[in-house]
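Suppose you are handed a protein chain with no further information: no name, no annotation, nothing but its sequence. What can you learn? This example shows the usual starting point.
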Amino acid sequence: MKKIGFLFDLDGTLINSQAAVFNSWVTMANEAGIPLEALAGHHGVPAEQTLRKVLAGREEAEIQKWIRRVTDLEIADVDGVHAAPGALELLTELNDREIPWTIVTSCTTDLAIARTRAGKIPMPANSVTFDQVTRGKPFPEPFILGADRLGLQTDLCWAVEDAPGGVTSAKEAGCTVAGVLTTHTREELPHADHHLEHLNQLLGKAGL
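A reasonable first move is to predict its three-dimensional structure. Written in structure tokens, the prediction is:
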């Protein structure tokens, strides 16, 4: 059987950080004068890409200020951040069976470290974070790099994602995509190859 690997999104997939994300972005949006409705639909997309879109027309120095502000808020707010149901058990099983996996996230490295630490999720040294790519999700580069770091072609990798932008990124990269239904519905992730109600369904779907 061909060796396959797994590329996991972080927020909404391996960890639940919805409250921290919401609180941080509401605080920053209020300070920056950004209408909250302008932020809808950007879950799973890197903060910098989101803010460049919603702050289009503002000075670069101001955009950089708000990117730093929301990142600092998110790093500081880890109350309530915890592992998603089944995440620790799944990663332990993958390690025990020597099945390669890593994390592919839209978080910066510092934020990913803070979130994985809060959720008690291991963060592999070969994880892919936003500050390691030229263009983050929904572009394919993060998952192409993730597969490369596992030493596998993308068509031998399963990407596990909860957000439309991440599903698009992984599909464009050539991965098989399992959409985990934590933050979006099946109808909102129509391009995923499989849908998971719970992470404990993943290995069965992959024939493992």
